[in-house]
Amino acid sequence: MFMQIVARTKYFSFVFWIFNIFFLLCNRIYEGYSFSVFGQHWAYLDNFRGTFRWHICFNFVALRMISFGYDYHWANQASRFDYEKHTQRCHICKSGKTCYQVLQERSVPNDKFSFSVYLSYLVYAPIYVTGPILSFNAFASQLNVPQNNFSPTDVAWYGVRWIFNFVLMELITHLFYYNAFAISGMWKHLSPMDVFIIGYGVLNFMWLKFFLIWRYFRLWSLICGIEVPENMPRCINNCYNLESFWKNWHASYNKWLVRYMYIPLGGSQRKLLNIWVIFTFVAIWHDLEWKLLSWAWLTCLFFVPEMVFKATANSFQAKSAFGHFVLRELNAVAGAVTITCLMVANLVGFVIGPSGINWLVSRFLRKDGLPVLAGMFVTFYVGTKLMFHIHEFKQGRH
């Protein structure tokens, strides 16, 4: 009720964000609160809280609360979504089906913004614990008309693929010890080549771990008849710039950030400023830790040269074969630099922490570390060029 009242005022965005971020921070600071605040005679209940921490899951609930508020706020305004233009370029909509973007952008009738629908959206079981993140419009529009993009056979094959990936994860866990070295801190006593292998292995392990978690819950949601966005649509080893990486890592969260933060903040017109606001929010949303803020701000720093390079490359028109060759090589070099920066940012944020940056830099700038650093760069350069060929092959097929 509070959000519906605020949504009708001109101060909606300011009040709405303050309200949600305030409770998000309080939940983390007080670690889900305790029964002792109601009196010492209730304190014994704090010993029976269990392992399921509701305030961690509330992070996703907060995103759904914001989605409901904004979708209700926009429901009676002129739509910014050009359905006809979208249909012309969307192969799903051309086939007579309804893609997720249409479900998300198309407002639902006012009777869908009821308390019962809102509550069912907040606690929808398949996506309650980890996501994927689903907008309110997309959820409410599928309550009476279940998704038709995936047949029962498609859903079954989706489940079979998940089982094969689960087996792969079991094999990796038992045969490779990337995480053991990273968590124990033993990587500090290894050679630069070993550190590189462990760091790259940890990132691939993290990718597969989240891949399994998110696809399990998406499978559950598809069985229930609700289509949610696919996270991890592209392998981590097939991303050569930061923008494509974030679009293809937590893809549903990226869609949410674009719709509810990036566009309201000004979109591409203020991109350089927006990324700092958005990644700071993402870090705080994950947890109140300095290493996550370090990860967010390092990522923003690495984003700046990529944005400058893209703007320069787009303004440069190669008029000869040699010009195309030079532009392609520069893109490959930029891709290699980006992958290296991406590895550093994620290792700082999720493995070594900000205190390990100086050690990492000094370790690779030694005499025995420089050849490894050069080998890393050449490997990523070759990998980036291979990604170019894969992308061109897929474009040719379409």
From TrEMBL:
Keywords assigned: Membrane, Transmembrane, Transmembrane helix
Location in or out of the cell: Membrane
Organism: Ziziphus jujuba (Chinese jujube)
Presence of keyword Membrane: yes
Name listed for the protein in its UniProt record: Membrane-bound O-acyltransferase gup1 isoform X4
A Pfam family it matches: MBOAT
UniProt-listed InterPro entries: MB_O-acyltransferase, MBOAT_fam
Transmembrane segments: 12-30, 121-143, 155-177, 197-217, 292-309, 330-352, 372-390
This protein's record includes keyword Transmembrane: yes
Principal subcellular localization: membrane
Topology of the protein relative to the lipid bilayer: Multi-pass membrane protein
